[in-house]
Amino acid sequence: MILCDVWAQDCPAGEKCTAWSYDGSHSWNGMKCVPIAADPDGIGEPCTVIDGPYSGVDTCVLPAICWGANSESGVGTCVEFCRGLEAAPTCTDPNAHCQGRDLALCIPSCCPVEQTCPL
Description:
The strands form 4 sheets. The chain has a 3-stranded antiparallel β-sheet, with no helix packed on it. It is mainly beta. The chain contains no helices and 9 strands. The model has no long low-confidence stretch (mean pLDDT about 90).
């Protein structure tokens, strides 16, 4: 296992840097390199986690994580990691904003008045 920097995406070719639980808890508390799936799911698409929601191994593209995976089915949604510099993060989707510090993800922006927020 190779530890990595999610901002730098400094893993070997064919791998991505992603969050995982190094102590088996139900929260991400470390970063490691994992293989990218052969036919990866795109950002915003359904995805599957392998070996549990906090294993770090999933079917998402680089640089995304399978977010909100159901513990029984293993199905979640690919969410993009923030890109650029930690001091000035960006998202590929102009309708998303970077949220979080240790696990910085691109969260869709929404307008409660227009009811475009997830329920």
